[in-house]
Amino acid sequence: xxxxxxxxxxxxxxxxxxxxxxxxxxxxxxxxxxxxxxxxxxxxxxxxxxxxxxxxxxxxxxxxxxxxxxxxxxxxxxxxxxxxxxxxxxxxxxxxxxxxxxxxxxxxxxxxxxxxxxxxxxxxxxxxxxxxxxxxxxxxxxxxxxxx
Length: 148
Known about the structure:
Elements: H1 3-9, H2 16-27, E1 34-40, E2 51-54, E3 63-66, E4 70-73, H3 74-89, E5 93-99, H4 108-124, E6 128-135, E7 138-142, H5 144-147
Parallel strand pairs: 5-6
Antiparallel strand pairs: 1-2, 1-5, 3-4, 6-7
Helix pairs in contact: 3-4
């Protein structure tokens, strides 16, 4: 790990603006449609892993059958797996960044996924710190008013 990576990892993210600045520094600008999972550790700093996930479904409410959960919505499955990752990694919070190229900061699909993931996080007791979009012009935080 380089000194600059160490300093990024040691930044305590007290505010959502600090988190937004970190996302801008790390991810910079959108290249493709994907979801980034960022984890926050018990110090309030960026934890491991920083993880991209492409090819997530268009509809968060579409159902899928999995052996351990039965038939559930994609959003439930994803948030359930995120909760398991939090437990395994020892992190305390998750941040979701919805990446998509283009000029529009918040799209209909972003709203649907943000709403579904916020609901699933609440239902499953998973600490979802914040959600953002990363688009062609930068980063924008998604607030509940944006997707409810």
